[in-house]
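Lab manual, section 2.4: Encoding a predicted structure.

Procedure: take the sequence of the chain (260 residues), apply the prediction step described in section 2.3, and record the output as structure tokens. A sample record is shown.
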Amino acid sequence: MFDAPLDLARARILVTNDDGIHAPGLKALEKIARALSKDVWVVAPETEQSAVSHSLTIRTPLRIRRSQRRRFAVDGTPTDCVLLAINHILKDDKPTLCLSGINRGGNLGEDVIYSGTVAAAMEATMLGVPAIALSQQMKRGHPVKWATAEEHAAKVIRKLAKVGWPANTLVNVNFPDVLADAVKGVVVARQGRHKIGDELVERIDPRGVPYYWIGAMRQEDATARGTDIAACQDGFIAVTPLFLDLTHRPTIDRLAQALK
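Recorded output:
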């Protein structure tokens, strides 16, 4: 566990995302971070990198573009951004906290496997920097309620920084798709499960060759109580600690016996 409580007023905060350097969610998170500390640095992808998961660029060189003081764009993935931020841009005075988001859309259930937002927080955690991923749930075809995350994020971050969390663990925060004053509270919830949908769309190109769009592939299932999905659907902010060790420990002994 890092040395909690974390003094946010003196913290060096790294802000990143997967929606790109121009995303409204990034601007919102940067504003939130600046309300917590004066030492805020932004290192984000040059273009949108949603659903790239923990992808790392190794076949092509990466370029860093400085857009403003303490603000940089990287022509790579969220993981690339965090790696370059911690080990290059801020190598002489590393960040004490990484905030990733605010993602346009929730990162609930199995979304965390695909999410570049969560992957950026994961990379920071792997590099020894406490990290929080933040996402604003939304309904397709409806405006994103950014004001909900903007209203509540700083309070949640302050409380998390006060108590701390273990090494090898990141915190995943999802804000519900309700107005800011309709949020019912904060719930610590386990990772839920989505029902797998069948949103695959086949089309034909001008040369008669079929191609495919992969859709959302998800339909919310809030039947299991105590999950991040259920919490958000009920109007609560969902806070979920995610552990980087994927080992299923109860199975170790059984497989060890079977494979002797």
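Check your result against the sample. The first strand starts at residue 12 and ends at 16.
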